[in-house]
């Protein structure tokens, strides 16, 4: 009886493949990364194949040295792969020169780091404004965007403060505002709560979840199983390979 039920037509299969392809925002195919010195060669990634869907919240976990940050740096265009292919939003970025990669980074990617990476001599406002200066955004538009980003992370009252006048949680929220001020399509967060206490870590995670709900594609490296569980999908890495994948929401 089941044999008489027709399967999908060739046209339907083609439409399904096209829809799947359009849903992929970042695609890595057999990507490896080697770090070489005059004395030793270290393999950080081994033939990693991965698709990140448009608008997805993806977390990566694993022990120190397993390749998590190397994977994040390649996806964020901070580091090129040694071999393999990487397509970002339909563009093969594997062979692009540094000038072109820099242009794509500035217009596409927002960064949140564990150590905040704020400039001590600049105010909160000036730190958040910095990516827009690199992009030559007009002053009036810069002002509107910075204020909007700081309001989004509840720091509009602190915009004239310097980093050393802020708590750790406030510094990380400033870093998040800096990451989102340019309206990036992709936000990469490397241990964004690693230097924070529980309350401040929860505040930062709530902001990241709000960004995802608003449509951002989010890639986060974390050691926290509780924070990884906020993602739609969790990759577990070991020795430069993805060894397991799970969907917390499906539990």
**Biggest sheet details:** 6 strands, mixed
Strand order, main sheet: write it out.
6-7-8-3-9-10
Give me the CATH superfamily: P-loop containing nucleotide triphosphate hydrolases
| DSSP strand tally | 10
Distance between the termini: 34 Å
The CATH first-level class comes to Alpha Beta
Rg is: 20 Å
Structural class: alpha/beta
Give the ordered list of helices and strands. Answer: HEEEHEEHEHHHEHEHEE
Outline: globular
Tally of domains: 1
Brief characterization of the structure:
With 251 residues, this protein is α/β, with parallel strands linked by helices.
Main features:
Rossmann fold; 4-stranded antiparallel β-sheet; alpha/beta; 251 residues; 6-stranded mixed β-sheet; 36% helix
Secondary structure layout:
Blueprint: H1 10-23, E1 24-36, E2 41-53, E3 57-61, H2 68-75, E4 83-88, E5 91-92, H3 98-108, E6 109-113, H4 124-134, H5 139-152, H6 168-180, E7 186-190, H7 198-213, E8 217-221, H8 225-228, E9 233-238, E10 241-246
Characterization of this structure:
There is one protein chain. The protein has 251 residues and is of the alpha/beta class. The chain has a single domain (55-79, 96-250), classed as P-loop containing nucleotide triphosphate hydrolases (Rossmann fold, 3-Layer(aba) Sandwich). It is 36% helix and 26% strand. The protein is built from 8 helices and 10 strands. It has a 6-stranded mixed sheet, sandwiched between helices. The protein has a 4-stranded antiparallel sheet with strand order 2-1-4-5. β7, α7 and β8 form a beta-alpha-beta unit. The longest helix is centred in the C-terminal third of the chain and has 16 residues, at 198-213. It is globular. The model is unreliable at 14-19 (pLDDT under 50).
């Amino acid at each position: 009886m089941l044999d008489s039920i027709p399967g999908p037509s060739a046209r339907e299969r083609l439409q399904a493949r096209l829809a799947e392809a359009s849903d992929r925002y970042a695609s890595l195919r057999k990507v490896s990364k080697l770090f070489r010195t005059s004395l030793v060669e270290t393999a950080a990634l081994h033939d990693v194949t991965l698709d990140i869907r448009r608008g997805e919240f993806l977390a990566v976990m694993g022990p120190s040295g397993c390749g998590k940050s190397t994977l994040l740096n390649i996806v964020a265009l901070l580091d090129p792969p040694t071999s393999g292919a990487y397509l970002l939003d339909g563009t093969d970025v594997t062979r692009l020169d540094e000038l072109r990669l820099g242009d794509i980074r500035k217009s596409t990617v927002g960064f949140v780091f564990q150590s905040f990476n704020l400039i001590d001599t600049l105010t909160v406002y000036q730190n958040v404004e910095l990516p827009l200066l690199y992009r030559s955004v007009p002053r009036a538009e810069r002002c509107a965007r910075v204020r909007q980003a700081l309001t989004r992370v509840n720091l509009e009252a602190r915009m004239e403060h310097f980093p050393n006048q802020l708590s750790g949680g406030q510094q990380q929220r400033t870093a998040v505002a800096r990451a989102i001020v340019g309206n990036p399509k992709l936000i990469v967060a490397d241990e964004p709560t690693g230097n924070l206490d529980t309350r401040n870590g929860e505040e930062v995670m709530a902001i990241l979840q709000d960004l995802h709900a608003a449509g951002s594609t989010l890639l986060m490296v974390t050691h926290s199983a509780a924070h990884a569980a906020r993602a739609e999908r969790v990759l577990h890495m070991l020795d430069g390979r993805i060894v397991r994948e799970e969907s917390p929401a499906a539990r």
